[in-house]
């Protein structure tokens, strides 16, 4: 079975990890610092703070922005639940804004309409978290303009998008946001086993992210409440966590980061091949805006012109047909508001017609950088055959 995504571990990766295992530091130490330097350099941001996962990084992003009980956070419903969970950890109320059916990202038009209404009702969000679905950046310039107009902070959940660009600059530059998050889970573009990072250009946010990553403890006399000059002295000045990345993981990340450009090129090459092959099928692929180069974490297609009016039935036939041909598929994602944890207050699904349509019709097919040409051809052929069989 060809999976929808899979990591690639080279001999160099293994050697890098073994070298750390033979060294003095195995948890957060000099290799984490080097990995952070390389991350911020490759993205053009001033600070990078590596963490144990993107989920941890999202949690601390919300915390460092001061999110607290009763605050409102807006995000897209088409994302992994961790995007919203991080805000709930802080006691915030998470609300969703519908997506754009062509790009699958949060709809800027819907966002603008909702902000106008929320402004009149005095229910504006404190933070907006956008998600660069499948690796394509949202229209960040527009989103930043709205954030300035209405006074909310912006987090980019770029778990899918390291290596992508927006307006000729790397995703992660934080030019149009307060904080950008990456994930290094094995299905993502590069991996550290488990891991994530938060990037920012704001030194104050960077300081808070670092503090919260390690128990809220400081050894910097300038940050202490009652410094006593003793070499052993430290202070806990906030309620932090243990969200550290290890040097073992950072060594893997550093080694993988060297191949980021190659990975993203290969992913784009496969995506272009699929797009061409699927041109005449009754499906739509994600529209890529001229301002973006996608990192193509995922290849998602959407059934169009369904015979039944309910794409879900046709989709099931296609998914089963692909499975018989050894091609695994997936669905990214179930709208977050549909999960029982989030729907318990009785969400009206009718408020999100595009997310609902997407949920009925989307399929993720295999795309990862180590796919062979034969595997790519097999997937493309199987998809074409499955659609043609349906007529
Ligand atoms: C994978 C993912 C996360 C969580 O990443 P972890 O590193 O597994 O915590 C968050 N948001 C999105 C959009 C993701 O795809």
Molecular structure report:
The protein is α/β, with parallel strands linked by helices and 391 residues long. It is built from 13 helices and 15 strands. The chain has helices at residues 11-21, 30-43, 54-64, 82-89, 108-120, 140-150, 203-213, 247-257, 260-277, 311-324, 340-343, 353-361, 373-390; strands spanning 47-51, 72-75, 93-96, 127-131, 153-157, 165-166, 169-170, 179-183, 196-200, 217-218, 235-236, 283-285, 292-293, 299-303, 362-365. Helix 3 (54-64) crosses helix 7 (203-213) and helix 10 crosses helix 13. The longest helix has 18 residues, at 260-277. It is globular. The structure holds pyridoxal-5'-phosphate (PLP). Residues 53-55, 79-80, 82-83, 131, 157, 159-160, 183, 185, 196 line the site of pyridoxal-5'-phosphate.
Radius of gyration: 22 Å
Give the N-to-C terminal Cα separation: 25 Å
* Low-pLDDT segments: none
Classify the beta-strand content into a percent band: 5-15%
Q: Give the CA-based shape.
A: globular
For the sheet with most strands, the description reads: 7 strands, mixed
- Report helical residue fraction: 25-40%
The strand line-up of the biggest sheet is: 1-9-8-5-4-2-3
Q: Mean pLDDT, as a whole number?
A: 96
Q: What series of H and E elements makes up the topology?
A: HHEHEHEHEHEEEEEHEEHHEEEHHHEH
Number of strands: 15
Q: What are the bound molecules?
A: pyridoxal-5'-phosphate
Number of DSSP helical runs? 13
What descriptors fit this protein?
391 residues; alpha/beta; 7-stranded mixed sheet; 3-stranded antiparallel sheet; 13 helices; 39% helix; 14% strand; binds pyridoxal-5'-phosphate
